[in-house]
Specification:
- The structure is a homodimer of 209-residue chains.
- Chain A is mainly α.
- Chain A has a domain of 134 residues: Orthogonal Bundle (Tetracycline Repressor, domain 2).
- In chain A, 70% of the residues lie in helices and 0% in strands.
- Chain A contains 9 helices and no strands.
- In chain A, helix 1 crosses helix 2, helix 5 runs parallel beside helix 8 and helix 7 packs across helix 8.
- Chain A is elongated and about 60 Å long.
- At the A-B interface, helix 6, helix 7, helix 8 and helix 9 of A face helix 6, helix 7, helix 8 and helix 9 of B.
- The structure holds a DNA duplex (30 and 30 nucleotides).
Chain lengths: 209, 209
DNA sequence: CACTGGCTATAACGCCCGTCATAGTCTAGC
DNA sequence: GCTAGACTATGACGGGCGTTATAGCCAGTG
């Protein structure tokens, strides 16, 4: 299996894209997966193409602006996929959403045998060119922001004060992202499990406090 | 300025190393800084040497096993530097230690204008070669483990139950690491500030709860 | 049938990579 | 002064990088 996020290649398109190109989406999804493993700068376009079983020429056909464009779309793709899941599961309340968020990442780390993580984080930890703000990095910031807003809104809907809700949402996203990386280094799920436990009791306490 | 961690190049050596080589330490410290910006695979030995104003040949003189050895020492160097600060400040209690931990990373992110982060995290998010466990990744896991243990022990010393202490320590390290990355993506200190607030009230509550 | 336009195949461009080998320089101790 | 050994300088090695150019294939339309 090539990654939980990447396996969600379905119809539905991201923006205007009226037609076609099943391989285009395959490339984007594969890029998200590969970037989540290797990091952005360490992943070559040739690897990306091979991973998606697409010819190198096709990547420049679909993404004429090159690697940056592909990376940006990959980050948006992963960010959107996670946001969709989060939005759906948060309907059953903040704790249910939190659990879905946690088990989503848990699945990615375990199924990849500690080799894959979060592509959004991977893009976030690479230095941008002096004084610039590459689109992929902006997309990463937007993904984090989306997740936080979804979580915060769910908390607010369940009676948590606005400021506190934003704070808790940031804590959730940050600690889960950090824990994923720690799990990969330690080759153990303990960090994410411990963080999950702490977050669950914290949220539960805030909700009926 | 070249990074808070890297600027701590002082006498004192890490292990046996009885003598010499000021430039050896400069290379290691510079490597920690550069890796924290660019990531491991994306940082070349030539850049590392130039960054430390050392000739390329010297890197292979001091680190005959090549890039992996240098990366490993850089991770250990950074991990040890943070652990030393943590150990010192935790003497004044868990909240004081937490504050020091937070403001240490805060300084690194701000002084680098959101370009540097945590070298330990940077190494953790790169895929190891199939079935292997590179020494640098092991060093990253050890650094995380050290920080967690220091925090957990301080909490225990102040009356927190053992399991809870380990959980809180994991939450602290994970959320701070994640928040650093989010700050870089957003080019804003808000994530780390929010996480700091949440962690402080959480710890304070646990301590006199 | 010819033709157009989306996709692929292949090769090349200059550049940088990790690593190694070799020869040179400098300094300490005899 | 001379030799040994720590460090530096330089250049090469094969290979992968991002990107571009060019030509070929192969539907679907007229």
């Amino acid at each position: 299996m090539t990654g939980v996020i990447a396996s969600g290649v379905r119809r539905g398109s991201t923006a205007v894209a009226k037609s076609s190109a099943p391989s285009r989406e395959r490339i984007v999804a594969g890029a998200a997966d590969l970037i989540s493993r290797r990091g952005l700068n360490a992943t070559s376009i040739r690897e990306l193409a091979k991973h998606a079983k697409a010819p190198l020429g096709s990547t420049y056909h679909y993404f004429p602006e090159g690697k940056g464009q592909l990376a940006t779309e990959a980050v948006r793709y992963a960010g959107g996929a996670v946001a969709r899941i989060l939005r759906r599961e948060l309907d059953a309340g903040p704790v249910a959403g939190l659990r879905a968020f946690l088990s989503l990442w848990r699945g990615i780390v375990i199924e990849s045998d500690f080799r894959a993580g979060c592509p959004v984080l991977a893009v976030s930890v690479e230095e941008p060119p002096a004084g610039e703000m590459p689109p992929a990095l902006t997309a990463a910031a937007e993904a984090f922001e989306d997740w936080e807003q979804l979580l915060a809104e769910a908390l607010r809907k369940h009676g948590v004060d606005g400021d506190q809700a934003r704070g808790l949402a940031a804590l959730i996203v940050a600690s889960v992202e950090g824990a994923i990386a720690m799990c990969r280094a330690k080759r153990s799920m303990q960090p994410l499990d411990r963080v999950a436990r702490q977050l669950e009791t914290l949220i539960a306490g805030v909700l009926d406090g």
